[in-house]
Amino acid sequence: MKFRFLLLLFLFVAPTSAQNAVLRAGTVIYAHDGSTTTDQKITVIDGKIASIDTWSGAMSDDVIDLSDSYIMAGLIDAHAHMALEVDPKKDGGNYFVTGILNTTAYRAVQGVRNAKDMLEAGFTSIRDIGNNGNYADVALKQGIDEGLVPGPHMEVAGRIIAPFGGQFHLQPEKRHVGNPEYFFADGPDDIRKAVRENLHFGSTFIKIVIDDQRYIYSVDEIRAAVEEAEGAGTYVAAHCWTEQGARNAIEAGVHTIEHGPNMSDETLQLAKDAGVYLVGTEFTLAGLAWADPSADVSAFQPEHDMFVDRLRRSHAVGVMNVYGSDAVFRNAEHGRGIESLDVLNSWREAGMPNDYTLRAITATAAEMMGISDTRGILAPGLAADIVAMPNNPLDSTAALHEINWVMQNGELVRHP
Fold first, then answer.
1. Which of 98, 193, 280, 307 has the smallest C-beta neighbourhood within 10 Å, fewest atoms?
2. Which range of residues forms the domain containing residue 63?
């Protein structure tokens, strides 16, 4: 009875400091190497994992009993958009229209809800990769860091840097409509200035769009962004859709390629040799068709197949694949977090080994984001970002859809 009372306090009272806890874990999965241990005692002190040992002692009201569950590190979505929520009923499913209709302040409010959804689904860290209006992502990250609102640990891109027009087609009379959604920058000098402005206003990494216009960023232009970012201790993530865009990005030294559906085996090998991570956002058919509920889903089959094929080929080549959803809508029934798990269906369709997928959605993502010294795996000294579920994700990653217990930084977020 005492434990149930404390649990209610955890659930309904916003905690002000990290909790200490003792967990009895049935099976602990170490996603970074696929190993497991059973009947473990996880001790959490001041929000961090103090120790993981074989269970000893007696059960008591102070112990959180997860002896029937599978335990692993919290999930990471490395391509998320907390303050972008496209609604076909309001904006026709066009995120260009979304940015015009919704103020940055309103989008930040949406971000608060989406961040909570993500955390409750098991995503204890995310990389928010732009499309947040005028730095709504930075404001949301600050609110989470200060404990004002619940949400995952966030790394944020701020305003996306792109050639004129960004990802939209503008009218001559309204050539500035794409701002502040995008930071139009052409030429190395403009790009360097844009990088510095983003960093000044709180971005923790830089996102650029390479090739969504007839003209694309050159190697020299991309390299200017890379040099500025690296000089400030961070990196560039490059949205690439074409083969040439990906090649330019790799040659210029970017840290990650986002999407990359048209990358050939040769270009994938270049990415591997350069140590470039691929955050592929392998959309499912449902994910591609979300903007038009009346559409014939089969029309999206070729694009879906292209992503699944590229995932298979990148894995065969040995590219460092990282999980990213690119979810930009919210099903009112279950929220953004569940939508962000949808891409797992494409990974299963591509035949990715379960242990490989678990690394991609935890340890590899943390390594790519530069946070592996604080989170991303279960180990003493790291943040107590822990999830539990009734079935074994090493048998099927569908088990991740059933996460029903979440702890972040030692705080109990969700319990059955």
1. 193
2. 2-74+377-414
Same domain, 272 and 315: yes
The CA distance from 92 to 106, in Å, is 19
Identity of the amino acid at 294: S
Residue 15: which pLDDT band, with cuts at 50, 70 and 90? very low
Secondary structure of 255-290 as H, E, C letters? CEEEECCCCCHHHHHHHHHHCCEEECCCCCHHHHHC
Angle at 365 between CA 120 and CA 246, to 5 degrees: 125
- One-letter identity of residue 414: R
Cβ(405)–Cβ(66) under 8 Å? yes
Confidence of residue 18 (pLDDT cuts 50, 70, 90): low
180: preceding bond cis by omega (within 30 degrees): yes
Hey, is 78 helix, strand or coil? strand
State the CATH number of the domain containing residue 285: 3.20.20.140
What number of other Cβ atoms are within 10 A of residue 103's Cβ?
12
Answer yes or no: are the C-beta atoms of 235 and 185 closer than 8 Å: no
